[in-house]
Every structure is written in C-alpha cells, then in structure tokens.
Amino acid sequence: MSSKKIAIIGGGNLGSAIAEGLLKSGFSRAADITITKRNTATLGSLKEQGVNIEADNAKAVAGADVVLVALKPYNVKEVLAGLQPVFKPEKQILISVVTGILIEDLEKIVGGNMPLVRAMPNTAIAIGESMTCICHKYASPEHVSWVESMFNQLGVTVSIDEKLMDAATVLGACGIAYALRFIRANIQGGIEIGFDVRTANLIAAQTVKGAAELLIREKRHPEEEIDKVTTPKGCTIAGLNEMEHQGFSSSLIKGIATSYNKIVKG
Ligand SMILES: NC(=O)C1=CN([C@@H]2O[C@H](COP(=O)(O)OP(=O)(O)OC[C@H]3O[C@@H](n4cnc5c(N)ncnc54)[C@H](O)[C@@H]3O)[C@@H](O)[C@H]2O)C=CC1
Ligand SMILES: O=C(O)[C@@H]1CCC=N1
C-alpha cells in the first residue's frame, strides 16, 4: 500500500474509475485519495467508501504528493493554469491522462522541472484490468517506479515514446468501446440464433475473454489460434469469410484510423 496522497482532478468517468481501482486494489487508503469535481453530487459512492470529495481544486492539490489530472482536453489548460501557484514542483508528481495534451503543454502550464507523466489507461482501470501506456519527463527513476507500480496494481503498464501516445489512446482507451461493440454484435447474433440476452451476454463476453487470454498467456498470434477453430468446410470458416466479404477487418482498421485522425487532425 502506498502512503502517497493522491489528488484526482476531474471526477468523471475515468477519474472515478481510477479512484475505484485504487481502492479495490488496496494500493491506496480511501483517506489518501481526494477527488474533485465542480458538482460533487455524483461522487456519492466514493464518498461512502471514505474518499475525500472536494470542489476546490487548489485545496486538493495543496495537500497532495501526486496530482492526477483527468479533465476534458478543452478545459485542462485553463484549470491547470489557475492551479499553477499551488503546485510544488520539487515535492509533487503530475500525471495527466488527458488525450492530446503533450508533456510540452504541461511543462508550459506548470512551469519548472516538475516530474511530468502522461498516462493513457482505459476504463477497465476500475476493476484492475487497464492497459496503461506511459511516458514521462523530469521524473527520477524512483518517480517512474512509483507511477508504474501504481498503474501495475490497476492492470498492465507499458512505457512508450510520447509520439505514440495518440496511437495508444486509440488502441488502448478507445479500444474498450470497440471491443464492447464487437461483443454487443455477438449478443445480437446470439439472440437471433436462440439465446436469451443474459445467456448470450455471458457466452459472448467469456468467449472474448478466453480468446484474449490465449494471446496474453500463451503469447500466440491470433491467426495461429484461429487455425485451430476453422475445420475445413466447417461453419467457422464459412462465417469468418462472410464477415470478411462484408468488410469486417477493413471496417475495424478504418475505424481505428478515423479515431486516430480525429485526435491528430481534430
Ligand atoms: N473515458 C475514457 O475511457 C478515457 C478518457 N481519457 C481522458 O481522460 C479525460 C477525462 O475523460 P472522462 O473521464 O471520460 O471525461 P468526463 O467528462 O467524464 O470527466 C471530466 C470531469 O471533469 C470535471 N470537471 C470539469 N471542470 C472541472 C474543474 N474545473 N474542476 C474539477 N473537475 C472538473 C467534469 O465535471 C467531469 O466530471 C479526458 O481528457 C479523456 O480524453 C483517457 C483515457 C480513457
Ligand atoms: O473519446 C475520447 O475522446 C476519449 C479518449 C479515449 C477514450 N475516450
């Protein structure tokens, strides 16, 4: 368990998920987490678990060892600029999970040589199953090790070059939505061929989990595992080929490129 005090600035979808994950993993005590939001009414569940709920960002930052920014990209610069006098560059670590905000942008806002970390987790962080990509500047090996140990408690972490951060946002963070849409389509198909929605949901989700675990645990390439399922003249290859005729892989690749272009071109 860490004794560092963590202030999460922006208690929305991701900020709340991170607080949930920190509590569930046992990495932080509830009393060591402060989460902020302008309207704190929606943070009741975290409050009940003992997390400090705060509307005043400056107060939260002043009492923190680690400041984790989970604001929307459009208001992050303004909010952080207002907090500049409260930051303690020599004592704090700043972690931003904000899409498209560069370390260079953070540096301009906070000033000084504050340890700066960009992290790109996904919403599975709430249950300790995030894929989190990180990069950093001005962070000592101890800082980096602490940040990695935090995100490792909340899933799997990989260090990447900052120029890949937008790609990480698409593949890792948006990827949760792509995977869920794939599962939803499976559920819809499952209902059409006879299952009730609950059973279809369970079968579709567990099957996707099993497929992912085959890659993660066995370190295999997907096609190697697909070959084991596709009986010659069988139903799997018939269905797979029909999916490809309808543009399955192509639509996913185009969707990924579209998400990426939305980040880099606006
Ligand atoms: N939702 C996701 O799956 C992921 C989101 N991100 C990034 O994380 C950031 C947050 O995303 P979400 O949580 O989805 O957005 P969100 O809109 O749910 O959360 C932002 C929160 O900040 C609060 N807020 C606005 N102004 C504030 C202020 N002055 N002080 C304190 N709180 C304030 C809002 O009320 C809101 O609850 C974004 O930059 C996004 O790009 C990154 C990875 C995954
Ligand atoms: O859609 C978005 O803009 C954010 C970034 C990653 C996930 N959600």
TrEMBL record:
Q: Where in the cell is it found?
A: Cytoplasm
Reactions catalysed according to its record? L-proline + NADP(+) = (S)-1-pyrroline-5-carboxylate + NADPH + 2 H(+); L-proline + NAD(+) = (S)-1-pyrroline-5-carboxylate + NADH + 2 H(+)
One GO molecular-function entry: pyrroline-5-carboxylate reductase activity
Q: In which pathway does it act?
A: Amino-acid biosynthesis; L-proline biosynthesis; L-proline from L-glutamate 5-semialdehyde: step 1/1
Q: Which InterPro entries match?
A: 6-PGluconate_DH-like_C_sf, NAD(P)-bd_dom_sf, P5C_Rdtase_cat_N, P5CR_dimer, Pyrroline-COOH_reductase
Principal subcellular localization: cytoplasm
The record's section on Pfam families has: F420_oxidored, P5CR_dimer
Does the keyword Cytoplasm feature in the UniProt annotation? yes
Keywords in alphabetical order: Amino-acid biosynthesis, Cytoplasm, NADP, Oxidoreductase, Proline biosynthesis
Coiled coil regions in record: none
Query: Record keywords: Transit peptide included?
Result: no
> Residue ranges of the Pyrroline-5-carboxylate reductase dimerisation domain?
162-262
Q: Where is the Pyrroline-5-carboxylate reductase catalytic N-terminal domain?
A: 5-99
Annotated signal sequence is none
Enzyme Commission (EC) number:
1.5.1.2
Q: What does this protein do?
A: Catalyzes the reduction of 1-pyrroline-5-carboxylate (PCA) to L-proline.
Similarity field: Belongs to the pyrroline-5-carboxylate reductase family.
Q: What is this protein called?
A: Pyrroline-5-carboxylate reductase
Protein source organism: Chitinophaga horti
